[in-house]
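WARN retry 2 of 3 for item q-0093 after timeout on previous attempt; input resubmitted unchanged.
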Amino acid sequence: MKKVKVSRMSLALILFFMTGLATTGDYAQQPPAASGQANSPATQSPNATPDPTTTPAVPSDKVVIKVGDTQVTAADFDFLLHTLNTQDQKNVAAQGRQPLAEQYILTLLLEQQGLRDHLDSTSDFRRQEAIERAQRLAQAEYEKMARDIQVAPQEITQYYAAHTAELEQVAVRQVGIRKKAAGGKPDAPGLSPEEAKARAEQIRKALAAGTDPKEVAKDFAVPSVVFVDTQERNIQHGQLPGDWDQTLFKLKDGEISENLDTPQSIAFLQVVRHIHPELKDVQQTVEQEVRQEKLKAKIAELKNGTTVWTDQDYFKTPEKPVTGPAAPPPLTPKPPAAAQPAPKPPADQQPPKQ
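OK item q-0093 returned
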C-alpha cells in the first residue's frame, strides 16, 4: 500500500462535501459549508467544547484510514482538521471524528475513480488546477510579505503627524423613519411619506434646540418605525458611503445633516462632537496603515520589475447602457476595518476567483 499526504484535490473535495452541516446538525448526512481557511486553536474555558484539532496520543505516522492502496496517517487527518472553519470544528468536537472520516473516505474514493477515468488529464481540469495553485501561492506570498514588514516607532509617529485630519472622528447620533410600502396593507409598519417627512422635521427641530435625545426618543420614537439613537457612536473617515463622509465631517458640533430620503425611509445624522484622537488611541490603526502602505509599495516594486502586458482591445471596458438614476446608498456606516497581521490582497490585486 502507498501512504499519501492530504492532496490539494482531496482537501477541496472534502470541503465541498461538507456543505450543509451547520444547518442540519447531521454531520454524517449533511456536512456544513467550509471556508477552507485554517483556524488557530483558541484558548478555551474548562466548560468549553473540546478542541477537535487536539491530536490524540498516537504517533503522527500511524495509519488511521485505508482506501484501496491509499493510506492516511494521523498527521494527514490532523492537517485536515486544522483547515476547517470554526463552526465545522465545533461540529467535529460535538459529534466526533468518525463522520468527517467517512466524508474523507468518500473523497478518496471519488478521487481514485477520477484518476482511473483520467479526468485529471482533461484541459479544463488542468486549467482549474493551475488557477487554484496560483491562487494559493499568491495568497501565501502576500501573507509572507505582510509578515516580513517591520514598522519602526518613528514611522508611526511620522504618519500620525502627517495624517491628523484623516484620523479625525465624529461622534454622531442617527435618526431613521420607516415609510409604509406603496400599496402595502393598512396594518403594515411604517408612516406615509408625508407623515414620515413631518416626523423627521419635528425630531430635527427638537435635536437642534438641544433637547435631551432620551426625551426626543420618548416623544417621537415608535417601535419598528421611528428610531432615535440616544447613544452616540464614533464614525471614522471612510465609513459612510459616497459624499456623506465628506459632508458629515464638515458639519459643526450640534449640526444636523440633510435628510437621506428614499422610498423606504428617511434618515439623518446629528454631529455631537468632533474627536481628535491622541496617538495612543489610534496607534494600532496607524501601524496598520503604515504596514499597508509598505505592502502596497512592495507589490508595486514587484510589478514594476516584471514585464506585464495586456491586450487593451480584449480588455476594453464595455460601454455602459443608459439607465435611470441610481438609488441613494444606505446611510448605515460601515464598521471600521480591524487591524490584520496578514491581510488578504485588495480586490485589484487578488488572483481571479473561479
